[in-house]
Amino acid sequence: MTRLTRTVAAATLATALALVSACSGGSDSADAAKTGDGASLEKVTYLTSFGNFGRDSYAWVAKDKGFFKEAGFDVEIKAGQGTGAVIQTIVGGQADFGPIDLTGGLLQVGNGQAKDFVAVAAIQQRTMAAIVSVEGKNIATPKDLEGKKLADTPGSVVRNLFPTYARMAGVDYNKVTWVNGEAQTLMGTLASGQVDGIGQFVVGQPTVEAVTKKKPVVLPYSNVMQDLYGNALITSSKMAKENPEKVKKFTAALLKGLEYALANPQEAADILKKNVNTTNPAAAAAELQLMAGYVRSSNSGTAIGTLDSDRVAKSIAILQGAGALKSNITPDQIINFDLVPKA
Fold first, then answer.
1. Residue 236: which H helix or E strand, with range?
2. Using CA of residue 163, residue 120, residue 307, residue 112, what is the dihedral sign?
3. Which of 43, 199, 250, 255 could be a cystine partner for 158, CB 3.0 to 4.6 Å?
4. 171, 143 in Cβ contact below 8 A?
5. Four-residue CA torsion sign, 319, 321, 324, 326
6. Which residues lie closer than 8 Å to 304 by C-beta, 6 or more apart?
7. pLDDT digits over 320-329, tens only?
8. What is the pLDDT of residues 88-107, one digit of tens each?
């Protein structure tokens, strides 16, 4: 009987060990604790810029392809809700990194709405902010927005920058109505006819068309506001000061994911679909293809992620000239140029 008991116990232990091995084998979570050389990974929380669309898939690529792991990080990716919300979450300590629209960041700092964060790399060299409508709404020019209803998240750069865009485009801002929406439901709001347009990035066209089943009408802010950057990666001022090497390593891994995603848009879209079930892979891949032209500029050469102090100063001057800033600010107040990738 004792021998039988020992035999059953041994079999039970073997089964348990096999189950543990099966559960952990090939799992991302099993690898999350250590790097290939056995070193522990540092946990990091990353926010996307605005929901989970193709334009933000590069973070999932960096995670899936092991770029974060190689840099020593176990990264949790969460959906962001626009510039203002991303800044608040990072400054509040609930996340470590995330992209914001740099112009939106300038507005937040210059109007006393935010502080204690810094940009450490550019994601896009030109702003992708836009108002997006669909055919049948009688919107073809900025002036046509008067008398219309638009939706966006309260902290979105498209919404916060709209008064400046309206002035420069000859639109009476007071004749445009804004209502609140959420990142993942904005396109559905447009599709249902509840609003005439939404705040969106230019690259959102394929996804808008897939959701609304109508041809998008896009009014890019870049048509009237030159020299404005698009998204930039930010972290807290505290993190940048106390852990500069960590910031550099994370930035390099994320930008590696960005470069890979742009070179392999369909694979990037499939990776996003694997992690975010609601993804439309065709639309996500198309977004990345559209975004490629915004990631590099003549100023950045072949490098990804660079930020130029003179260009940022021009952006500030544009906002000041339009009366959009309550206080004077300098590029160094929002960008840590010691941590920015070099051209």
1. strand 231-236
2. positive
3. 199
4. yes
5. positive
6. 122, 255, 258, 259, 295, 296, 341
7. 988 889 999 9
8. 999 999 999 999 999 999 99
